[in-house]
């Protein structure tokens, strides 16, 4: 994983509609050590909320969003540090990415 998927909700160019509550919950989660998995790797066959499986991968858009917005970047989240240890992504893959939202306010504005 070296880039967000083409329809990642953290990309500014993607039209994605979430409730304000859902957007807030995502941001609260990733800033409080919760994992956020790529929607393409979550099993939605039994629930609209989806089920994380052993094959689920961390969302690289969320990784870059943290890099762009939070002191300590993705390493500020323990689950993303585990992703580094499991080699889901590497520090060399991380970069400032203008295609990803650059602030919490812009993310909420863009997906709500």
Brief descriptors of the model:
112 residues; mainly alpha; globular
Contiguous helical run count = 4
Helix content: 25-40%
Task: Quote the distance from N terminus to C terminus.
Answer: 27 Å
Overall residue-averaged pLDDT value: 91
Got a strand count?
0
Number of domains: 1
Describe this structure in words.
This protein has 112 residues and is mostly helical. The protein has four helices and no strands. It is globular. The model has no long low-confidence stretch (mean pLDDT 91).
Layout of strands and helices, then pairs:
Blueprint: H1 20-30, H2 60-69, H3 78-85, H4 104-111
Helix pairs in contact: 1-4
How would you summarize this macromolecular structure in one to three sentences?
With 112 residues, the chain is mainly alpha-helical. The protein has 4 helices and no strands.
